[in-house]
Amino acid sequence: MSFAGRSSSMKEQPHICPLCGRAYDEPPALSRADNQTDICPRCGMMEALAAMPRRETPQERTRRAVYATGNRWAIENFEATHH
């Protein structure tokens, strides 16, 4: 029976998430890895966030620009100040 069709009086055993091993009793999320596995809502949110495209950070843009110059001193200086 689906989560939506259950009555509130039914005592349901918590499910165990195959990714994190935590017990959960909320409606499951569908894993983006195989589109078949039910996972806990928390892991579902983490998979969704990981799948979102992200923008390049200012540090990554600067690193790309510094390495593009090929200037060894600039590269060494960047690495020394950003690690």
Q: Would you mind describing this structure in some detail?
A:
With 83 residues, the chain is mainly alpha-helical. The chain has 3 helices and 4 strands. The longest helix has 12 residues, at 58-69. It has helices at residues 41-51, 58-69, 72-81, and strands at 15-16, 23-24, 29-30, 38-39.
Output the radius of gyration: 23 Å
Portion in beta strands: 5-15%
Gap between N and C termini, in Å? 53 Å
Helix content: 25-40%
The count of strands amounts to: 4
Question: Strands of the biggest beta sheet: in what spatial order?
Answer: 1-2
Q: What's the total helix number?
A: 3
Mean pLDDT: 87
User: Which regions are unreliable across 5 or more consecutive residues at pLDDT < 50?
Assistant: none
Main sheet: strands, sense, barrel: 2 strands, antiparallel
Number of domains: 2
SS-based structural class?
Answer: mainly alpha
